[in-house]
Structures are given as structure tokens and as C-alpha cells.
Amino acid sequence: MNTIANIMQELRDYWADHFSRRFQPKRPPLRRITSISTFYLLDYRTRQAELGLGYGPPQAQLSDAKFVFQDGKWQGESGLSYRPPLLQLFSSRDREKPCKVLKKENKALLEENNYLKLQLELLMDMLTETTARLHMVEKKMDVPTWRTKKSPNKVLMLKS
Fold first, then answer.
1. Where are the alpha helices (DSSP H) in the chain?
2. Could you give the CA distance from residue 89 to residue 99 in angstroms, rounded to a whole number?
3. In this structure, how many other beta carbons lie within 10 angstroms of the beta carbon of residue 144?
């Protein structure tokens, strides 16, 4: 019996020490004051000289060839402008042929689009004219317009 009481007391003590207290994290140590760099106060050219920020133009190396980006184009180190290898395989005539076909297709599609727009405009005009005629006939016959719900059984049919 005495051992069970001891175990229960140890369990209560352990619970009180580890789980019953509120969480109180330790405060972090204070930071040491470091000296602040004054390079941000210098103008661009002085920073460039002090820190060696003169990078020069971007450069890339692809397999054995080295390229430099100058004047908006990638140029080889020898100064020749870079031409992608796939374009070197085809002659200029072969490259122009698909371009002409695409231009013809584009022109045909634009013409079809304009024709469809014209048809839509014509149909809208015809609908407007027919609606206006319907209103004129309804006014002449003193029939309530189709928008009102006074006489839902009457239907007006027009013959053309």
C-alpha cells in the first residue's frame, strides 16, 4: 500500500511540475548594437568604385560558344550577332513560305469576321424595323402592346 501511495504522490508532483503551470517562454537575450554601414549614403559611382559593382554586360556560354548581350542583341565574342541554330538550317525562302500562308489565312479570317459583323448589323436593323412596325399596327388597332399584361389571350399576327 505504501508503494502505491508513493507512486501516486510522485505522479501528482510530476503533473504539478510539468503540466499545471502556465506557459511562460524565456525571454531572448538582448541584441548587441552593431555599427550601421554608411554605404547607402554614398552616390552610385562611389559605391561602384568601393564595392566593385561594375558588372559589365551580361554574358553566357553555350557549349563552346560565348555570347555577350550588347545593344539589345546577343552577340558572339567575336562581335557577330547570334543566329539561332534552327534558323541556320532553313533558307530564307523556306522561312517566308509559312509566313505567307499565315498572312493569307489571317486576311481571309478578317474578311469573314467583317462579313459576319455586317450580317449582324443588318439583322439588328431588320429586327428594329419589324418591332417598330408592330408598335405602329398595335397603336392603329388600339390593341394593348405586347408588354402589358391586361389581355394575355389576345395575340396579334402580322402577315408580310
1. 2-18, 44-51, 85-89, 92-141
2. 17
3. 13
- The distance in angstroms from the start CA to the end CA of the chain is 113
Which tens digit of pLDDT belongs to each residue from 33-57?
776 677 667 777 777 777 776 677 8
| Long-range contact set of residues 65-74: C-beta below 8 Å, sequence gap at least 24 | none
CB of 59 closer than 8 Å to CB of 68: yes
State pTM to two decimals. 0.33
Q: Please compute the mean of the pLDDT values over residues 4-11 and round it to a whole number.
A: 87
Q: Counting Cβ atoms within 10 Å, is residue 47 exposed (0-12), middle (13-18) or buried (19+)?
A: middle
Q: Which of 132, 131, 154, 157 is nearest to 143 (CA)?
A: 154
CB 143 within 8 A of CB 156: yes
